[in-house]
Specification:
The structure is a single chain. This protein has an 8-stranded mixed β-sheet with strand order 1-2-4-3-5-6-7-8, with helices on both faces. The chain has helices spanning about 5-15, 60, 90-100, 115-125, 155-160, 175-185, 195-205, 215, 220-225, 225-235, 255-265, 280, 285-295, and strands at about 15-20, 25-30, 40-45, 70, 105-110, 135-140, 240-245, 270. It has a single domain (about 5-295), classed as Alpha/Beta hydrolase fold, catalytic domain (Rossmann fold, 3-Layer(aba) Sandwich). The longest helix is centred in the first third of the chain and has 14 residues, at about 90-100. The protein is about 40% helix and about 15% strand. The protein is α/β, with parallel strands linked by helices. The protein is built from 13 helices and 8 strands. It is globular, with a radius of gyration of 18 Å.
Length: about 300
């Protein structure tokens, strides 16, 4: 275990274990059901530029009647951060390997931000017969599933303008700057916990991860190029779909959720009023009030 500045990060690491998945050291958390296991396991896929820690305030409630599996994608959080090209194929391979290593063949999906796109790739693979699991339901939360509608931040645009390579050690990305950028994605009507922002920065910068941001953000280019595959799978996969969306997200704007619901009118749509891009951190109770019944449908 690492000597962490943030007690929250130390506690999060203690809950998990490291596995070798798809050839990379991957941080995983496997939470057993706290009570009678009434529901299928839930696989949670986090977003950019953070990690599974995003769900630290909600995971225990999610696990009241089901097993919950979380992991840090490669290049994120406590997982390996090699200096390489980061692709959605890589992250999907790791997700599949984790599910297989955990012995799970029937599952539900909860995805956020970048995780929505990774989830789209996983759904496409399952539909193609390349992922031999049964998906019983899924919840999609704030993420740029229609990339042409996204209001990318100045920071995101800057990272995308840089070469796809590791930044030098002297690059001026520091804790206050990154914490401010994350806080700006929250609703102006909600206040991020300073301890959460400090922990997020520690996890992003762990093993020099902040220097890899011009590489890990390249998923946006893939999403632009292959949106028909990723969003097409989110739209068309036959498993029950629930859309849970913070109304005040400045990047993945609410019109995206409205558009998805128009394509999938059979899906449930839950608006989280006065909540921005990180609903599981901004208002854990509102997030859980929407997600738990959606998964139990």
């Amino acid at each position: 275990m690492m000597p962490w500045r943030s007690p929250a990060v130390a506690a999060w690491e203690q809950r998990g274990r490291y596995r070798d998945l798809a050839g990379y050291k991957t941080f995983t958390i496997d939470v057993p059901s706290a009570g009678p296991e009434k529901e299928e396991p839930l696989v949670v896929v986090h977003g950019f530029p953070s990690s599974s820690f995003d769900f630290h305030r909600v995971v225990d409630t999610l696990a009241e009647h089901r097993r919950v599996l979380l992991f840090d994608m490669i290049g994120y959080g406590l997982s390996a951060k090699p200096d390489r090209a980061y692709t959605l194929d890589l992250q999907a391979e790791v997700a599949q390997a984790f599910v297989a290593d955990a012995g799970v063949s029937t599952l539900a999906l909860l995805t956020h931000d970048l995780g929505d796109t990774v989830g789209g790739e996983l759904l496409a693979r399952q539909a193609e017969g390349r992922w031999p699991v049964e998906i019983t339901g899924r919840v999609v939360t704030n993420g740029s599933i229609y990339i042409e509608m996204a209001h990318l931040s100045v920071g995101q645009q800057l990272l995308l303008s840089l070469p796809d390579e590791r930044l030098p050690d002297t690059a001026g990305i520091d804790g206050p700057t990154m914490q401010s950028s994350l806080a700006a994605t929250f609703s102006t009507r909600s206040r991020p916990e300073p301890s959460d922002l400090e922990a997020e920065w520690e996890l992003i910068s762990h093993d020099g991860g902040h220097l890899l941001l011009p590489r890990t953000i390249r998923y946006i280019e893939e999403r632009r190029r292959d949106q028909a595959r990723f969003t097409g799978a989110i739209e068309s996969h036959p498993s029950p779909l629930a859309i849970v969306w913070g109304t005040d997200d400045p990047i993945a704007v609410r019109d995206m959720a409205t558009r998805l619901h128009g394509v999938r009118p059979d899906a449930s749509l839950s608006w989280l009023e006065g909540i921005g891009h990180y609903p599981m951190l901004e208002s854990p109770s509102a997030f859980l009030d929407a997600v738990v019944p959606a998964l139990a449908r």
